[in-house]
Amino acid sequence: MTLVNLFQKDDDFVKYNYFEKLDDWNNEQEFRILAYIDDPEYIMSIDDFNTYIEGVVIGEKIDPAYEKVIRKLISEICKECSVKKITFENYICRII
Fold first, then answer.
1. What is the pLDDT of residues 78-90, one digit of tens each?
2. Measuring CA to CA, which of 16, 55, 70, 94 is 20 to 30 A from 34?
């Protein structure tokens, strides 16, 4: 079973892992987008990404290879978007 098949067949998995938030973050004006596509060129065809995305925050424990891909993709499609990384140190949350 591919990951796309899992997402399409298990709504609870998708809802829990991608669209639920901790109460601490409920006041955030955040939007999440999940795209089921096989062709990454499709994302590149969206006109003027800057209209839709202000920035991206990636998790502290993201695999460095994935972080590199996300940063490269955002820099190519959204020139004015910032990519920040969340960190936790001594119970303090920082976005750097």
1. 778 889 998 888 8
2. 94
Locate tokens 């460095």: which residue?
64
Q: Which residue has the tokens 């991608």?
A: 18
- Residue 34: predicted pLDDT: 67
Return the pLDDT at 15.
77
Q: How many domains does the chain have?
A: 2
Q: How far apart are CA 18 and CA 6, in angstroms?
A: 13
What is residue 66's predicted lDDT score, i.e. its pLDDT? 87
Domain residues for 91?
52-96
C-alpha 39/C-alpha 72 separation (Å) is 17
One domain for residues 56 and 29: no
d(CA 37, CA 28): 27
Q: Do 28 and 68 belong to one domain?
A: no
